[in-house]
């Protein structure tokens, strides 16, 4: 609600960033709350009053501490405060007020936001500023030998190197005294111009899109930078995921200025909806029409959600349930708190009986399949079990959802989602919105987590596209994940969206078959950031290496294959800390500065070499997850053995044998989080041959 209030006010007052006689004087003169301060600061920025904006933001921070704000509102305030600092800094740089820009950097650092400070575009801007000033020192030494400017610069640079930004900014500001006194300082103008060029955009384009957010029934897109256009206008285009350059439809235009805000209707769930579009500033310069900025999708689809419901994040233990699990009390007996189930879209879309209209188009879904999932989700919720669904793209007679490049006759288990055509994008968006609404607060059960695809880095089998480099493959997949993220969270703001990888982590890419999970994740992240990062999450299937190895504590060639090195070829429950440590790195944090949610949604161990080994491995895996604070769930991959898997793959990974008889692993998994868990861990330690199971645990670096 805080964010809605702020952005609504922004839309009312922030027509332009530069002062204009046409801007009405709408300002909260005596702000009483932190929300008031944000509105007031936005107004001051719109009027070009950076000093006043900074002052009112500081006052808002004081008010926030006295308001007993919850964690979400506090994070929202600090995020918006930082965004406004960045805008102010860029405006100050344009005015050549370098010292004041440096002071803003110091303010962010002293505010205790080191993580954000280190990863934010503002630090890159200040670093480039620092480098240019160092170049200025060299220029001064060569051109201005008769003045004392060199000494000041040396002291200022030294202060910056030691982190004393206050002293540095004062010294840099004092240098302005010399400019009008020496003709040869015309070289300084050239250097200042170079600084301005380096701080406009990090993408080589003259404009930089800073924000794209829903504001009530509108969207507000903010960009900064400047280039003169033939018609004196900047035009904002809404584009499909597969469009680029000057493609798309114009949704807004503003006069050329240093900073811009475009405000236009969202049109949610109409034929003119821009909810799933990305936005690019376009203009004509010297007769050539081209993209003037990077592109950005809407960053807060949850702002328009109407079916948000509470999550059920209690507990760690979960399972892929048998189809017959509701005919007995097996789930209650095991005490699982999470369940995972597959949802092949081919089943949903191949059939009739259920009509659904979205964005002005009508779709037909299979009513029987919907009824089955309604029953499944509702029954699991009745047992206080959190539900995770895996969205899979299987081939059916209707190929709309299959990426056209994947329709080359190759047979695969599942295929890449179609983000390359209008029909594919529109249908994926409709399915995402339908699922987000259906399994929220309207009476058919609640799905908290949505996994988009299965072991997607195993391209050839599980997310088929022809052989392409990992960056291209990840970029196509990221488009699909963003569509589901936007569609689901625009209905239920608390729905979490996950991507999925297998246990092949640091293995070298083999484009013909698979990509290493780490390389794939990094490429995915790069693609997401390029158009506005969002709160995607990750699931992993940390099976042993090789799959049929029954002992998690002792795997094949583990000194090479399963290590605690960041580039370990495989990630299993023995070294799952490798994955969680990777996601704890600052560059991998979500836009809120938090570690992304991590689920282990499929794991298991065969009992064909003895039930004791399987049971001890189950206890080991659970304890490893229990001690790692960044693992939010552990889903055992199979409730009952599959006869076909035993015959074909030599794998008997169920907790029950094919006849439904409980194995020792069932006993261990049932009791591992209850009273008596310590006895189970002792029994597991005896099987493994150690005194204490915890002596083998590696919960990750602090």
Account of the 3D structure:
The protein has 702 residues and is of the alpha/beta class. Among the domains are: 2-198, no CATH class; 207-299, Immunoglobulins (Immunoglobulin-like, Sandwich); 541-697, no CATH class. The chain is built from 24 helices and 17 strands. The strands form 4 sheets. It has an 8-stranded parallel barrel with strand order 8-9-12-13-14-15-16-17. It has a 4-stranded antiparallel sheet with strand order 4-3-6-7, with no helix packed on it. The chain is globular, with a radius of gyration of 28 Å. The chain starts with a helix and ends in a 14-residue tail after the last helix. The relative contact order is 0.07.
Write the layout of secondary structure elements.
Blueprint: H1 2-13, H2 34-46, H3 50-66, H4 71-94, H5 98-110, H6 114-119, H7 121-143, H8 149-161, H9 165-174, H10 176-179, H11 186-198, E1 207-215, E2 218-225, E3 233-239, E4 249-255, E5 259-265, E6 278-285, E7 288-297, E8 317-319, H12 330-334, E9 338-344, H13 345-349, E10 353-358, E11 361-366, H14 367-382, E12 386-392, H15 422-438, E13 449-452, H16 459-462, H17 470-489, E14 496-501, H18 517-530, E15 537-540, H19 558-561, H20 577-584, E16 598-603, H21 611-627, E17 631-636, H22 643-649, H23 664-671, H24 677-688
Parallel strand pairs: 8-9, 8-17, 9-12, 12-13, 13-14, 14-15, 15-16, 16-17
Antiparallel strand pairs: 1-2, 2-5, 3-4, 3-6, 6-7, 10-11
């Amino acid at each position: 609600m805080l964010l809605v209030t702020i952005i609504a006010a922004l839309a009312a007052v922030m027509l332009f960033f530069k002062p204009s006689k046409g801007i009405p004087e709408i300002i909260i003169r005596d702000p009483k709350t932190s929300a008031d301060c944000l509105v007031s600061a936005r107004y001051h920025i719109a009027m070009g009053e950076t000093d006043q904006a900074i002052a009112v933001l500081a006052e808002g921070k004081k008010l926030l501490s006295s308001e007993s704000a919850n964690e979400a509102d506090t994070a929202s305030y600090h995020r918006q405060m930082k965004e406004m600092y960045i805008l102010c800094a860029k405006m100050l740089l344009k005015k050549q007020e370098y010292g004041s820009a440096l002071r803003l950097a110091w303010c962010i650092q002293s505010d205790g936001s080191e993580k954000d400070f280190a990863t934010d575009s503002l630090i890159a801007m200040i670093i480039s500023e620092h480098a240019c000033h160092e170049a200025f020192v060299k220029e001064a030494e060569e051109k201005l030998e008769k003045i004392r400017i060199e000494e000041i610069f040396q002291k200022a640079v030294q202060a910056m190197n030691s982190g004393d930004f206050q002293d540095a900014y004062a010294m840099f500001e004092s240098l302005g005294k010399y400019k009008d006194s020496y003709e040869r300082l015309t070289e300084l103008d050239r250097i200042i111009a170079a600084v301005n060029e380096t701080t406009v955009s990090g993408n080589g384009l003259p404009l930089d899109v800073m924000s794209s957010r829903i504001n009530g029934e509108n969207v507000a897109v903010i960009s900064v930078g400047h280039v003169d256009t033939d018609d004196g206008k900047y035009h904002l285009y809404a584009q499909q995921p597969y469009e680029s350059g000057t493609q798309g439809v114009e949704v807004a235009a503003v006069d050329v200025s240093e900073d811009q805000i475009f405000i236009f209707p969202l049109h949610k769930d109409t034929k003119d909806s821009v909810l799933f579009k990305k936005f690019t500033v376009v203009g004509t310069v010297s007769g050539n029409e081209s993209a003037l900025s990077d592109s950005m999708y809407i960053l807060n689809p949850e702002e328009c959600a109407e079916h948000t419901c509470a999550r059920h994040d209690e507990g760690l233990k979960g399972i892929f349930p048998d189809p017959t699990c509701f005919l007995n009390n097996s789930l209650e007996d095991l005490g699982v708190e999470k369940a995972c189930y597959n949802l092949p879209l081919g089943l949903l879309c191949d059939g009739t009986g259920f009509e659904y209209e979205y964005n002005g188009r009508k779709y037909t879904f299979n009513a029987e399949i919907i009824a089955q999932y309604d029953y499944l989700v509702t029954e699991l919720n009745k047992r206080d079990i959190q539900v995770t669904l895996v969205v899979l793209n299987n081939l059916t007679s209707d190929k709309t959802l299959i990426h056209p490049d994947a329709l080359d006759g190759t047979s695969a288990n599942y295929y890449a989602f179609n983000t390359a055509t209008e029909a594919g994008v529109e249908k994926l968006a409709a399915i995402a919105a339908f699922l987000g609404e259906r399994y929220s607060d309207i009476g058919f059960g609640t799905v908290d987590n949505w996994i988009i695809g299965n072991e997607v880095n195993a391209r050839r089998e599980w997310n088929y596209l022809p052989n392409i480099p990992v960056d291209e493959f990840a970029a196509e997949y990221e488009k699909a994940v963003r569509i589901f993220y936007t569609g689901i969270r625009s209905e239920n703001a608390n729905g979490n969206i996950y991507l999925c990888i297998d246990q092949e982590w640091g293995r070298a890419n083999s484009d013909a078959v698979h990509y290493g999970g780490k390389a794939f994740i990094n490429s995915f992240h790069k693609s997401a950031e390029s158009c506005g990062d969002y709160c995607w999450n990750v699931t992993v299937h940390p099976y042993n290496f090789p799959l049929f190895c029954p002992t998690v504590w002792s795997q094949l060639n583990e000194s090479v294959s399963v290590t605690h090195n960041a580039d370990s070829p495989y990630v299993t429950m023995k070294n799952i800390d490798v994955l969680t440590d990777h996601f704890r790195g600052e560059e991998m944090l979500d836009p809120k500065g938090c570690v992304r949610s991590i689920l282990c949604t499929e794991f298991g161990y065969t009992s064909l070499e003895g039930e004791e080994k399987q049971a001890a491995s189950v206890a080991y895996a659970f304890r490893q997850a229990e001690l790692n604070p960044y693992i939010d769930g552990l889903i055992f991959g199979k409730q009952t053995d599959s006869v076909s898997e035993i015959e074909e793959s030599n794998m008997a990974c169920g907790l029950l044998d094919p006849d439904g008889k409980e194995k020792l692993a069932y006993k261990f998994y049932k009791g591992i989080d209850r009273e008596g868990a310590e006895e189970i861990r002792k029994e597991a330690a005896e099987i493994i041959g150690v005194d204490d199971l915890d002596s083998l645990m590696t919960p990750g670096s602090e």
